[in-house]
Amino acid sequence: EVQLVESGGGLVQAGGSLRLSCATSGFTFDDYTIGWFRQAPGKEREEVSYITTSDGRTYYADFVKGRFTISSDNAKNTVYLQMNSLKPEDTAVYYCVLGSDFGGSIKWYESDSRGQGTQVTVSS
Questions:
Q1: Looking only at Cα atoms, what is the longest distance across the chain?
Q2: 5, 63, 78, 97: which has the highest count of C-beta atoms within 10 A?
């Protein structure tokens, strides 16, 4: 059974930092791409960042470039999202999703693999 479990969210002041973790199981970690998404109340979900665990290739949305860093620990089957210089607009539920990289085009298996999410709240 594929499982992705997020942790590390919380309440932080603007300018602060948090590190989110996505612990995974039930699949061969090196064969997939792991992405972080977020969704705020009343807003569409946004793709934040992803990493292709086999080669470490990463992607960042423009609104987090230079502030967030994604990484993976393949020995622990875990992906991290280090979030620095947080802004109130970063407030959302963050969740990780399993995907497959088809030459740069990612197919996300969100209905089969989305975790429960972790709440990030940034106060001004």
A1: 41
A2: 97
Sign of CA dihedral 47, 7, 79, 108: negative
Query: Up-side HSE of residue 32: CA atoms within 13 Å toward CB?
Result: 21
Cα–Cα–Cα angle for 27, 25, 81, rounded to 5 degrees: 110
Q: What's the rounded Cα separation, in Å, for the pair 86 and 31?
A: 31
